[in-house]
Write a structure and sequence with these properties.
The chain has 355 residues and is α/β, with parallel strands linked by helices. 49% of the residues lie in helices and 17% in strands. It has eleven helices and twelve strands. Strands 3-2-4-5-6 form a five-stranded parallel sheet, with helices on both faces. A five-stranded mixed sheet has the order 9-10-8-11-12, sandwiched between helices. It starts with 12 loop residues before the first strand and ends with a helix.
Length: 355
Protein backbone atom coordinates (compact mmCIF):
# COMPACT_ATOMS: atom_id res chain seq x y z
CA UNK A 1 0.00 0.00 0.00
CA UNK A 2 3.05 2.26 0.28
CA UNK A 3 4.59 4.50 2.88
CA UNK A 4 2.48 6.99 4.82
CA UNK A 5 4.35 10.27 4.21
CA UNK A 6 2.55 12.09 7.02
CA UNK A 7 3.02 9.14 9.34
CA UNK A 8 -0.55 9.50 10.58
CA UNK A 9 -3.79 7.55 10.22
CA UNK A 10 -5.65 10.61 8.91
CA UNK A 11 -5.39 11.96 5.36
CA UNK A 12 -2.01 10.48 4.32
CA UNK A 13 -0.09 10.18 1.07
CA UNK A 14 1.50 7.16 -0.60
CA UNK A 15 4.37 8.19 -2.97
CA UNK A 16 5.75 4.72 -3.66
CA UNK A 17 3.93 4.25 -6.97
CA UNK A 18 5.81 5.01 -10.20
CA UNK A 19 5.29 8.41 -11.84
CA UNK A 20 5.14 7.96 -15.64
CA UNK A 21 5.40 11.03 -17.87
CA UNK A 22 2.10 12.85 -18.40
CA UNK A 23 0.99 13.38 -22.02
CA UNK A 24 0.53 17.09 -22.66
CA UNK A 25 -3.10 16.69 -23.68
CA UNK A 26 -3.89 15.23 -20.25
CA UNK A 27 -2.11 17.92 -18.25
CA UNK A 28 -4.82 19.63 -16.17
CA UNK A 29 -5.22 23.38 -16.23
CA UNK A 30 -4.32 25.24 -13.06
CA UNK A 31 -6.97 24.64 -10.43
CA UNK A 32 -7.73 26.31 -7.13
CA UNK A 33 -7.80 23.34 -4.75
CA UNK A 34 -8.98 23.34 -1.15
CA UNK A 35 -7.60 20.65 1.14
CA UNK A 36 -9.78 20.03 4.20
CA UNK A 37 -8.54 18.07 7.21
CA UNK A 38 -8.08 18.69 10.93
CA UNK A 39 -4.66 16.98 10.88
CA UNK A 40 -2.10 19.67 9.99
CA UNK A 41 0.62 17.16 9.07
CA UNK A 42 -1.59 15.28 6.61
CA UNK A 43 -2.87 18.55 5.17
CA UNK A 44 0.67 19.90 4.74
CA UNK A 45 1.71 16.73 2.89
CA UNK A 46 -1.19 17.04 0.47
CA UNK A 47 -0.53 20.74 -0.02
CA UNK A 48 3.02 19.99 -1.16
CA UNK A 49 1.82 17.45 -3.72
CA UNK A 50 -1.05 19.58 -5.06
CA UNK A 51 1.23 22.60 -5.40
CA UNK A 52 3.84 20.39 -7.08
CA UNK A 53 1.25 19.49 -9.71
CA UNK A 54 0.93 23.18 -10.57
CA UNK A 55 -2.23 24.04 -8.67
CA UNK A 56 -2.92 26.65 -6.02
CA UNK A 57 -3.87 25.41 -2.55
CA UNK A 58 -6.23 26.65 0.15
CA UNK A 59 -6.26 24.97 3.57
CA UNK A 60 -9.29 24.44 5.82
CA UNK A 61 -9.42 22.62 9.16
CA UNK A 62 -13.03 21.41 9.09
CA UNK A 63 -16.30 21.64 7.15
CA UNK A 64 -17.42 24.95 8.61
CA UNK A 65 -14.04 26.53 7.93
CA UNK A 66 -14.12 25.19 4.35
CA UNK A 67 -17.66 26.47 3.77
CA UNK A 68 -16.77 29.95 5.02
CA UNK A 69 -13.62 30.15 2.90
CA UNK A 70 -15.34 28.82 -0.20
CA UNK A 71 -18.20 31.29 0.25
CA UNK A 72 -15.72 34.15 0.52
CA UNK A 73 -13.69 33.01 -2.49
CA UNK A 74 -14.85 29.96 -4.41
CA UNK A 75 -12.47 27.14 -5.30
CA UNK A 76 -12.54 24.65 -8.19
CA UNK A 77 -11.84 21.45 -6.27
CA UNK A 78 -12.31 20.36 -2.66
CA UNK A 79 -10.34 17.35 -1.39
CA UNK A 80 -11.94 16.61 1.96
CA UNK A 81 -11.63 14.04 4.71
CA UNK A 82 -14.92 12.37 5.59
CA UNK A 83 -14.63 12.61 9.38
CA UNK A 84 -14.14 16.16 10.62
CA UNK A 85 -15.14 18.11 13.73
CA UNK A 86 -18.09 20.56 13.64
CA UNK A 87 -19.12 19.59 10.09
CA UNK A 88 -18.21 16.35 8.30
CA UNK A 89 -17.03 16.17 4.73
CA UNK A 90 -20.33 14.51 3.81
CA UNK A 91 -22.35 17.40 5.24
CA UNK A 92 -20.08 19.96 3.59
CA UNK A 93 -20.68 18.25 0.24
CA UNK A 94 -24.46 18.35 0.78
CA UNK A 95 -24.33 22.05 1.68
CA UNK A 96 -22.36 22.92 -1.43
CA UNK A 97 -24.68 20.95 -3.71
CA UNK A 98 -27.68 22.75 -2.23
CA UNK A 99 -26.32 26.07 -3.50
CA UNK A 100 -28.12 27.73 -6.40
CA UNK A 101 -26.37 29.30 -9.41
CA UNK A 102 -22.94 28.81 -7.83
CA UNK A 103 -19.93 27.74 -9.92
CA UNK A 104 -19.51 23.97 -9.90
CA UNK A 105 -17.05 22.51 -7.37
CA UNK A 106 -15.46 19.13 -7.99
CA UNK A 107 -15.69 17.30 -4.65
CA UNK A 108 -13.40 14.44 -3.66
CA UNK A 109 -14.07 12.59 -0.38
CA UNK A 110 -11.24 10.80 1.39
CA UNK A 111 -12.13 7.73 3.43
CA UNK A 112 -10.38 4.98 5.32
CA UNK A 113 -10.00 1.50 3.84
CA UNK A 114 -12.90 0.28 5.96
CA UNK A 115 -15.19 3.03 4.65
CA UNK A 116 -15.82 1.58 1.20
CA UNK A 117 -19.39 0.80 2.21
CA UNK A 118 -19.96 4.56 2.48
CA UNK A 119 -18.98 5.13 -1.15
CA UNK A 120 -22.57 5.24 -2.43
CA UNK A 121 -23.62 7.49 0.42
CA UNK A 122 -20.93 9.96 -0.59
CA UNK A 123 -21.92 9.82 -4.25
CA UNK A 124 -25.56 10.38 -3.37
CA UNK A 125 -24.54 13.39 -1.29
CA UNK A 126 -23.01 14.91 -4.41
CA UNK A 127 -19.36 13.84 -4.30
CA UNK A 128 -17.67 13.40 -7.68
CA UNK A 129 -15.03 10.92 -6.61
CA UNK A 130 -13.27 9.44 -3.60
CA UNK A 131 -9.79 8.49 -2.45
CA UNK A 132 -8.71 5.82 0.01
CA UNK A 133 -6.15 6.38 2.74
CA UNK A 134 -3.24 6.45 2.52
CA UNK A 135 -3.59 8.65 -0.56
CA UNK A 136 -1.36 7.61 -3.46
CA UNK A 137 0.21 10.31 -5.59
CA UNK A 138 -0.97 8.87 -8.90
CA UNK A 139 -4.52 8.46 -7.54
CA UNK A 140 -4.60 12.10 -6.42
CA UNK A 141 -3.14 13.32 -9.71
CA UNK A 142 -5.68 11.27 -11.66
CA UNK A 143 -8.54 12.81 -9.67
CA UNK A 144 -7.23 16.30 -10.42
CA UNK A 145 -6.90 15.52 -14.12
CA UNK A 146 -10.52 14.40 -14.11
CA UNK A 147 -11.51 17.47 -12.08
CA UNK A 148 -9.76 19.72 -14.59
CA UNK A 149 -11.83 18.29 -17.43
CA UNK A 150 -15.09 18.60 -15.53
CA UNK A 151 -14.33 22.17 -14.41
CA UNK A 152 -13.30 23.14 -17.95
CA UNK A 153 -16.58 21.73 -19.26
CA UNK A 154 -18.58 23.53 -16.57
CA UNK A 155 -16.84 26.81 -17.37
CA UNK A 156 -17.49 26.32 -21.06
CA UNK A 157 -21.17 25.59 -20.43
CA UNK A 158 -21.51 28.61 -18.14
CA UNK A 159 -19.82 30.83 -20.72
CA UNK A 160 -22.15 29.53 -23.41
CA UNK A 161 -25.18 30.04 -21.19
CA UNK A 162 -24.06 33.59 -20.40
CA UNK A 163 -23.55 34.27 -24.10
CA UNK A 164 -26.97 32.80 -24.86
CA UNK A 165 -28.56 34.99 -22.17
CA UNK A 166 -26.89 38.07 -23.64
CA UNK A 167 -28.00 37.09 -27.13
CA UNK A 168 -31.55 36.52 -25.87
CA UNK A 169 -31.55 39.99 -24.34
CA UNK A 170 -30.31 41.45 -27.61
CA UNK A 171 -32.95 39.56 -29.62
CA UNK A 172 -35.66 40.66 -27.21
CA UNK A 173 -34.52 44.25 -27.50
CA UNK A 174 -34.34 44.03 -31.29
CA UNK A 175 -37.90 42.68 -31.35
CA UNK A 176 -39.31 45.26 -28.93
CA UNK A 177 -37.37 48.47 -29.61
CA UNK A 178 -37.59 50.76 -32.62
CA UNK A 179 -34.06 50.94 -34.07
CA UNK A 180 -34.41 54.50 -35.37
CA UNK A 181 -35.67 56.29 -32.26
CA UNK A 182 -34.73 53.79 -29.53
CA UNK A 183 -38.34 53.89 -28.35
CA UNK A 184 -40.48 50.86 -27.58
CA UNK A 185 -42.23 49.56 -30.70
CA UNK A 186 -45.73 48.33 -31.50
CA UNK A 187 -44.97 44.76 -30.42
CA UNK A 188 -44.00 46.04 -26.98
CA UNK A 189 -47.09 48.24 -26.97
CA UNK A 190 -49.33 45.28 -27.76
CA UNK A 191 -47.87 43.28 -24.87
CA UNK A 192 -48.09 46.23 -22.47
CA UNK A 193 -51.67 47.06 -23.43
CA UNK A 194 -52.84 43.56 -22.53
CA UNK A 195 -51.23 43.83 -19.09
CA UNK A 196 -52.41 47.32 -18.22
CA UNK A 197 -55.96 46.64 -19.46
CA UNK A 198 -56.07 43.72 -17.04
CA UNK A 199 -54.79 45.88 -14.17
CA UNK A 200 -57.32 48.60 -14.97
CA UNK A 201 -60.20 46.11 -14.97
CA UNK A 202 -59.10 44.14 -11.93
CA UNK A 203 -57.62 46.78 -9.66
CA UNK A 204 -59.15 50.01 -10.91
CA UNK A 205 -55.89 51.61 -12.06
CA UNK A 206 -56.32 54.52 -14.43
CA UNK A 207 -54.27 55.19 -17.55
CA UNK A 208 -54.24 57.85 -20.21
CA UNK A 209 -52.69 57.62 -23.63
CA UNK A 210 -51.50 60.37 -25.94
CA UNK A 211 -50.90 59.90 -29.65
CA UNK A 212 -48.41 62.44 -31.01
CA UNK A 213 -48.10 63.09 -34.73
CA UNK A 214 -45.39 65.23 -36.36
CA UNK A 215 -47.17 67.97 -38.29
CA UNK A 216 -46.68 68.15 -42.05
CA UNK A 217 -44.00 65.48 -41.98
CA UNK A 218 -44.37 64.39 -45.61
CA UNK A 219 -43.69 67.95 -46.86
CA UNK A 220 -40.72 68.02 -44.46
CA UNK A 221 -39.30 64.85 -46.04
CA UNK A 222 -40.00 66.16 -49.52
CA UNK A 223 -38.23 69.43 -48.71
CA UNK A 224 -35.21 68.21 -46.74
CA UNK A 225 -34.91 64.50 -47.62
CA UNK A 226 -35.47 61.29 -45.72
CA UNK A 227 -32.13 61.41 -43.88
CA UNK A 228 -33.09 64.77 -42.39
CA UNK A 229 -36.52 63.30 -41.64
CA UNK A 230 -34.93 60.45 -39.70
CA UNK A 231 -32.83 62.91 -37.71
CA UNK A 232 -35.95 64.94 -36.94
CA UNK A 233 -37.78 61.86 -35.66
CA UNK A 234 -34.86 61.03 -33.38
CA UNK A 235 -34.89 64.57 -31.97
CA UNK A 236 -38.64 64.49 -31.45
CA UNK A 237 -38.53 61.08 -29.72
CA UNK A 238 -35.67 62.15 -27.46
CA UNK A 239 -37.48 65.35 -26.53
CA UNK A 240 -40.75 63.58 -25.74
CA UNK A 241 -38.96 60.96 -23.65
CA UNK A 242 -36.97 63.57 -21.71
CA UNK A 243 -40.10 65.58 -20.91
CA UNK A 244 -42.21 62.69 -19.60
CA UNK A 245 -42.29 61.38 -16.05
CA UNK A 246 -40.15 58.40 -15.12
CA UNK A 247 -43.15 56.05 -15.04
CA UNK A 248 -44.46 57.06 -18.46
CA UNK A 249 -43.64 55.00 -21.55
CA UNK A 250 -42.95 56.20 -25.09
CA UNK A 251 -43.63 54.03 -28.17
CA UNK A 252 -42.97 54.50 -31.87
CA UNK A 253 -46.53 53.99 -33.07
CA UNK A 254 -45.78 54.10 -36.78
CA UNK A 255 -44.22 56.46 -39.31
CA UNK A 256 -44.14 59.91 -37.71
CA UNK A 257 -46.51 58.92 -34.88
CA UNK A 258 -45.54 58.32 -31.26
CA UNK A 259 -47.72 57.02 -28.45
CA UNK A 260 -47.34 57.72 -24.74
CA UNK A 261 -48.84 55.71 -21.87
CA UNK A 262 -49.32 57.80 -18.71
CA UNK A 263 -50.13 55.57 -15.70
CA UNK A 264 -52.33 56.87 -12.86
CA UNK A 265 -53.35 59.99 -14.77
CA UNK A 266 -56.81 60.98 -15.87
CA UNK A 267 -57.07 62.44 -19.35
CA UNK A 268 -57.45 65.99 -18.05
CA UNK A 269 -54.43 65.50 -15.77
CA UNK A 270 -52.42 64.26 -18.74
CA UNK A 271 -53.23 67.34 -20.79
CA UNK A 272 -50.75 69.75 -19.12
CA UNK A 273 -48.05 67.06 -19.37
CA UNK A 274 -48.59 66.74 -23.11
CA UNK A 275 -48.86 70.52 -23.54
CA UNK A 276 -45.39 70.69 -22.07
CA UNK A 277 -44.23 67.99 -24.48
CA UNK A 278 -45.74 69.87 -27.44
CA UNK A 279 -44.07 73.08 -26.32
CA UNK A 280 -40.66 71.41 -25.91
CA UNK A 281 -40.81 69.90 -29.41
CA UNK A 282 -41.62 73.30 -30.92
CA UNK A 283 -38.79 74.82 -28.87
CA UNK A 284 -36.31 72.53 -30.64
CA UNK A 285 -36.53 75.03 -33.50
CA UNK A 286 -36.11 72.44 -36.24
CA UNK A 287 -36.60 74.53 -39.36
CA UNK A 288 -39.64 73.54 -41.47
CA UNK A 289 -40.04 75.66 -44.57
CA UNK A 290 -43.36 74.03 -45.48
CA UNK A 291 -45.01 74.83 -42.12
CA UNK A 292 -46.79 78.15 -41.46
CA UNK A 293 -44.96 78.26 -38.10
CA UNK A 294 -41.54 77.78 -39.72
CA UNK A 295 -40.54 75.03 -37.27
CA UNK A 296 -41.34 71.37 -36.77
CA UNK A 297 -44.29 70.81 -34.40
CA UNK A 298 -46.53 67.99 -33.17
CA UNK A 299 -50.24 67.56 -32.60
CA UNK A 300 -51.50 65.42 -29.71
CA UNK A 301 -54.71 63.51 -28.98
CA UNK A 302 -55.40 62.24 -25.44
CA UNK A 303 -57.88 59.64 -24.17
CA UNK A 304 -58.40 57.82 -20.89
CA UNK A 305 -58.69 54.04 -20.67
CA UNK A 306 -62.25 53.01 -19.85
CA UNK A 307 -62.53 49.19 -19.89
CA UNK A 308 -66.32 49.29 -19.93
CA UNK A 309 -66.21 51.21 -23.24
CA UNK A 310 -64.49 48.57 -25.35
CA UNK A 311 -61.06 48.17 -23.82
CA UNK A 312 -57.70 49.04 -25.32
CA UNK A 313 -58.70 49.13 -29.00
CA UNK A 314 -61.54 51.57 -28.36
CA UNK A 315 -59.19 53.57 -26.13
CA UNK A 316 -56.69 54.06 -28.94
CA UNK A 317 -59.45 54.93 -31.40
CA UNK A 318 -60.67 57.69 -29.08
CA UNK A 319 -57.12 59.05 -28.74
CA UNK A 320 -56.75 58.93 -32.51
CA UNK A 321 -60.04 60.84 -32.95
CA UNK A 322 -58.75 63.49 -30.55
CA UNK A 323 -55.56 63.71 -32.60
CA UNK A 324 -57.56 64.31 -35.79
CA UNK A 325 -59.36 67.17 -34.06
CA UNK A 326 -56.02 68.68 -33.12
CA UNK A 327 -55.00 68.49 -36.77
CA UNK A 328 -58.30 69.94 -37.96
CA UNK A 329 -58.10 72.78 -35.46
CA UNK A 330 -54.81 74.08 -36.78
CA UNK A 331 -52.07 71.64 -35.65
CA UNK A 332 -49.45 72.26 -32.96
CA UNK A 333 -52.08 71.72 -30.27
CA UNK A 334 -53.39 69.17 -27.77
CA UNK A 335 -56.96 67.84 -27.82
CA UNK A 336 -58.65 65.57 -25.28
CA UNK A 337 -61.17 62.81 -26.02
CA UNK A 338 -64.76 64.13 -26.21
CA UNK A 339 -65.91 61.99 -23.29
CA UNK A 340 -63.23 63.43 -21.00
CA UNK A 341 -64.01 66.94 -22.25
CA UNK A 342 -67.71 66.42 -21.58
CA UNK A 343 -66.92 65.26 -18.05
CA UNK A 344 -64.80 68.37 -17.51
CA UNK A 345 -67.59 70.64 -18.73
CA UNK A 346 -70.15 68.82 -16.56
CA UNK A 347 -67.93 69.15 -13.50
CA UNK A 348 -67.39 72.84 -14.16
CA UNK A 349 -71.14 73.38 -14.60
CA UNK A 350 -71.88 71.55 -11.36
CA UNK A 351 -69.27 73.63 -9.55
CA UNK A 352 -70.81 76.88 -10.82
CA UNK A 353 -74.28 75.75 -9.64
CA UNK A 354 -72.83 74.94 -6.20
CA UNK A 355 -71.26 78.37 -6.03
Amino acid sequence: MGTDVAGRSSMSLDTSSPQPPRPENLTPATLNVMVVDDDPDATAALEVVVAGLGHTVVRAVDGLDALAKHTASSVDVIVCDWYLPRMTGLELCRRLRAGVDAPYVYFVLITGVGDRAGFLEGMRAGADDYLLKPVRLDDLEGRLVSASRVIALQRSLRARNDALARATDLWHRAAHVDPLTDSANRLQLREDLAALESRASRYGHCYSTAICDVDLFKPYNDLYGHVAGDHALRFVAATIGATLRRGDTLYRYGGEEFLVILPEQRALEARPVMERVRSEVAALGLRHGASPLGVLTISVGIAELEPEQGGAEAWLRRADAALYRAKANGRNRVEVDDDAGQRERSSAHALRRTD
